[in-house]
Amino acid sequence: MTKRKTALLFLLTASLLYSVPTHAETATQAQGAVKPVTIYLDGHQFQPEVAPLNVDGTVLVPMRGVFEEEGAKLTWNNSSKTVTATKGNTTLTYRIGEHTASLNGQALSVDVPGQIANGYTLIPLRFVSEALGSSVKWDQTTKTVRITSTVNYETSILWGVNLRSLPDAGKGSSLEMLAAGAKVHVTREVNATWLEVQTHDNQTGYISAKPKYTDYSSPSLVDQQGDALIAYGKKYLGTPYVFGASPDQTNTFDCSSFVKRVFQDTLSIDLPRVSYDQAKVGKEVSMNELRKGDLLFFSARNLNIGHVAIYAGNNQILHTYSKELGVHVETFDGQWKKRFVTARRVF
What we know:
Keywords: Hydrolase, Protease, Signal, Thiol protease. It comes from Paenibacillus dokdonensis. About 20% of the residues lie in helices and about 35% in strands. The protein is α+β, with helices and mostly antiparallel strands. The chain folds into three domains: about 5-150, Copper Amine Oxidase, Chain A, domain 1; about 155-215, Roll (SH3 type barrels), CATH 2.30.30.40; about 220-345, endopeptidase fold (from Nostoc punctiforme). The longest helix is centred in the middle third of the chain and has 16 residues, at about 220-235.
């Protein structure tokens, strides 16, 4: 074995680093003498967006792909060319081109700095894997590198939910039923109603993001769910107002049947029928803390609480109380500020 190949094998085993064939090795592979290296991350083959760049034995890979594969949430400052990756309690900050990074506030040496090439931001795999707590095993027989990331199963299943092959209840298949009490790791927020997760037995799939099913929440998911609520409610703009309207139909609404329908259909949140009882659900929030999807309660019909609306953001409320207007959006001011009693947050 040549000294070059011996050095390469040492890097793979001792330094927890994978490599790709050099130009000389590629020529040898063409003759069928050397098998190409295969890389797996948590049991799945890792295929970067572009071919890795080998710089003196250190392999640089596309930034976004490797961070996301490692289960980290990524933010990128284009002006300073700085990447910040967060995984559990670990925060890694690195400015492309520098020889040091910050890991939870402590300096971390970067032997071969990251660089931007052909429109891609490339960073060293060794640096990322070690910083995020991954381990690597090299199989000499199969020329396979297996990278195992440290996974924090942070999310609890609250209600039995299907792990599905696709983020769509009408498509794909059910992989298994996750029982209440099970733990999963959320790898991605697909949209307002779906999460991509990893289970303890290393299965990946999709589960409902609706609050009923897990204790997972994040500012970005809350924003998406608030937007989804308002968008769904606006589908009924102009629907006639009828006091006491049955909640089992959508041809007419009163204020509380409208709110009940929107929350049930969008997030599977089952609210009580009348506004007085709806005001007992969730937690109270102040007027200066309001976010999309919060419930606003007002005095009406000589009752302390006789009306409910959904906060739609930008000082707007979505509700119904008028036979002339039906379901509509209006500004949260004037009479509504005077009659305001409380706000409740239910997700």
